[in-house]
Design a protein that fits this description.
Blueprint: E1 5-6, H1 19-39, H2 57-72, H3 92-111, H4 132-158, E2 160-161
Parallel strand pairs: 1-2
Helix pairs in contact: 1-3, 1-4, 2-3, 2-4
């Protein structure tokens, strides 16, 4: 394993007291954390399987992109296991740019959601949608879980730690 390098830790966000503001700030914090883990990771480590399941940094961010699109943009995912694999030609910059674009689109949808109890707007009528509150909490949980995986994988690749 390469010698450990330390990145500056970014503390959790300080926000106002509104529930929506707090939830969105923590989700954005986690989104930025995992994107940062992937964006400057070296090849070929960024796509190398770090564990027997085949989990790798590009796959984690590709999966989170699919979760964001399914949850906030209403896109249907028919093969969830496939979302953990980046396309062979995709590099870290491609996957990070796509993820950040999806996050921007998801945030645009969320900007129009004033009531956390209301369902997330869906472009496809007739499909059930979770409440905005549920969707935000789910994405915090999902992104946090995979950001933790990314922390460990990145440290195995080049010793980088921190958020």
């Amino acid at each position: 394993m390469p010698p450990a390098t330390r990145r500056a830790d970014t503390p959790p966000p300080r926000t106002g007291t509104g529930e929506a503001e707090v939830l969105r700030a923590f989700l954005d914090y986690l989104r930025a954390s995992i994107a940062a883990k992937v964006e400057d990771a070296p090849e070929p480590g960024v796509r190398a399987a770090a564990v027997p399941s085949g989990t790798n940094l590009l796959g984690l961010l590709t999966h989170l992109d699919a979760v964001e699109r399914a949850t906030f943009l209403g896109e249907e995912v028919t093969d969830w296991p496939a979302t953990f694999r980046a396309a062979p030609g995709d590099g870290a910059a491609d996957v990070v740019a796509r993820y950040r674009g999806t996050v921007a689109r998801a945030n645009f949808v969320l900007d129009g959601c004033a009531d956390l109890r209301a369902p997330v707007p869906r472009p496809c009528p007739g499909r059930p949608a979770p409440s905005v509150r549920w969707a935000l909490v789910h994405l915090i949980e999902e992104t946090g879980r995979h950001a933790g995986h990314a922390d460990i994988i990145r440290e195995l690749i080049d010793g980088a730690t921190g958020r």
